[in-house]
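Entry type: protein chain
Record version: 2
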Amino acid sequence: MIYNSLNYRIPIGDTDAMGIVYYANYLRYFEMGRNAFIRDTFRSYRDIEAAGVSMPVASVEVKYIKPGRFEDLLEIRTFIKELPCVKLYVYTEIYNQDNELVCKGKTKLAIIDKERQRPQKAPQDMVNALKGHLYPSCTAS
């Protein structure tokens, strides 16, 4: 499987009075999936930063397809479609327990040399680690 998968059951605290997921929680779900993907395919953010690189979020695009609801079991699928250079695009698709697409989008991460506070190319070990995780056909855009 090329994409990374993370399951998450929606708690009541993620929803409004009608049991619908709050807007901002989708961004948190994207972050949960992205962190797991990077950790599982390369290494943790803590280790990346210890090596002198930071990867702040530069932008996030989110497209809502249908509402997530209290106690839905979500599958957060995260993947890349190209290798990083001075930025890394991480794609996310969120499905409910009926395998219906709930939300999709992408996060752009800048790759920054922490010491000089300037953009830099992705470390070669990151590029090498991510080579086997390119997802050639997906529904996200």
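Comment: The first helix runs from residue 23 to 41.
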